[in-house]
């Protein structure tokens, strides 16, 4: 998707934390991954549209937005991962 290795690593760590905390139980791994990418690209001001994320991931834009909102609402639980 054009992310740097460090950004991919952060996405992976956030996805793992989401799973460990059970924050998005019932959501597919693909949806969580796409929403995490959306969260990271917005957090670090990386120019990547949600439409591109949806196209590459195969997930619907509204699903990505919905799950991203859940991630944003729990942002404090991920702050320690954003500086890596």
Descriptive report:
The structure is a single chain. The two termini are 20 Å apart. The chain is built from 4 helices and no strands. 63% of the residues lie in helices and 0% in strands. This is Cyclin-like protein. InterPro entries: Cyclin-like_sf.
Task: Write a concise synopsis of the structure shown.
With 84 residues, the chain is mainly α. The protein is built from 4 helices and no strands.
Stretches where pLDDT falls below 50 for ≥5 residues?
A: none
CA gyration radius, whole angstroms: 12 Å
Count every beta strand, where a strand is a DSSP E run of 2 or more residues. 0
DSSP helix fraction: 55-70%
Which structural category fits the helices and strands?
mainly alpha
Largest sheet: none
* Number of helical elements: 4
Average pLDDT level: 90
How far apart are the first and last residues' alpha carbons, in Å? Answer: 20 Å
Which word captures the global form? globular
Protein name: Cyclin-like protein
Organism: Gigaspora margarita
InterPro entries: Cyclin-like_sf
What's the arrangement of secondary structure elements?
Blueprint: H1 5-21, H2 29-43, H3 50-57, H4 61-73
Protein name: Cyclin-like protein
Organism: Gigaspora margarita
InterPro entries: Cyclin-like_sf
Question: What descriptive keywords fit this protein?
Answer:
Cyclin-like_sf, Cyclin-like protein, 63% helix, 84 residues, mainly alpha, 4 helices
